[in-house]
Design a protein that fits this description.
This protein is α/β, with parallel strands linked by helices and 416 residues long. It has 2 domains: 220 residues, Rossmann fold, CATH 3.40.50; 156 residues, NAD(P)-binding Rossmann-like Domain (Rossmann fold, 3-Layer(aba) Sandwich). The strands form 2 sheets. An 8-stranded mixed sheet has the order 9-8-7-10-11-14-13-12, sandwiched between helices. It has a 7-stranded parallel sheet with strand order 3-2-1-4-5-6-15, with helices on both faces. Helix 15 packs antiparallel against helix 16. It is found in: Cytoplasm.
Length: 416
Amino acid sequence: MQYKIKDISLAEAGHAQLEWAEMHMPALMSIQREIEKNKPLSGVSIAAVLHITKETGVLAKTLKLAGAKVALAASNPLSTQDDVAAALVKYYGINVFAWKGETEEDYYENIKKLMEFKPEVVMDDGGDLHAYIHQNELFQNMAGGTEETTTGVIRLKAMEQEKVLKYPVIAVNNAFTKYLFDNRFGTGQSAIDGVLRATNILIAGKTCVVVGYGWVGRGIASRLRGLGGRVIVVEASPLRALEAIMEGFEVMSMREAAKIGDLFITATGNIRAISKDHIMEMKDGAILANAGHFNVEIDVEGLRSIATRRRTIRPFTEEHVLSDGRRIYLLADGRLVNLAAGEGHPSEVMDLSFSNQALSVLYIVKKKGTLEPKVYDVPTEIDERVARLKLEAMGIKIEELTKEQVEYSKQWKYGT
């Protein structure tokens, strides 16, 4: 067993965090109990680049109990919960290479370390592991992989388009039980939680600018409005912009919004959604946060180039003073604010995402050698099974179609 973490003495506290997460992840725990019995992953080596949170810990433990050899690294330099990393090493024998506050060099060294375990299945969040494997031609032993987030799926689709993808990947992000809940309800709540932990500001009465109106942006905008914020949406897609208008939000260009916003949260998955020129238009005290996977959405280098001085005024809150005295506040170094300044998604929502991950890994192992090297959506039967497990855990019974109704839905002859 190998590991490189911050402090193994944190393991007891991390174990308590894992117990708390398990209590709120009934669907995944149901899967865990099932596969612990028959060990369908016996002898399978799995490498995962994920946020090392208590919820990820439950997923890793599930795979280990199913017989797999598991090695973990972080998908963000600031997202690791060090007590959880310690617990996974000490109590469950999982190889962890992650700690909060990694340098960029540390980050890639830890990804490199995972490949020493010769994984047959890889799990990724953002696509860095998949990219590393392909750039270094380390895919010979691979049965397939999964991808957790929108950014990673976009990268993998580009690899498929360029015909360089060498193994099948299941886009867990595209499951209904992932993006409809994790992206919208999970990030919607946890991104704001990260902002509040870093700043302790009052949202009510503030002009809040949400940059991007995908599922993540929808969730953030909805919750900011629920807290009393005046919400403005910045969006490049005419369809999404129209939807935001119909939902009752104001919609304008970034240049317009920059002049009036108090709090800005990016959720585009694209580079420089807030540029140096936009920052130059902002008023004194503006707060910048990012909810996208990579720290490219806010032009951090541009901000620092125009600042005459900067200081950390609160944990994860950096003050930048411009030449005219205006102060701009950057949260969590422009990285994922929910994980860098907070704890990430609530366990209840990660229950869905990580149930999809576990079942997708089982699917890949079962189908080894039969899937083409392309990006696949989560099979419908897995998506629906996860939803049913969650509903059952919540004590909710849904309607069942009668045989007559099933037959009616398949025919075309009956009309008015």
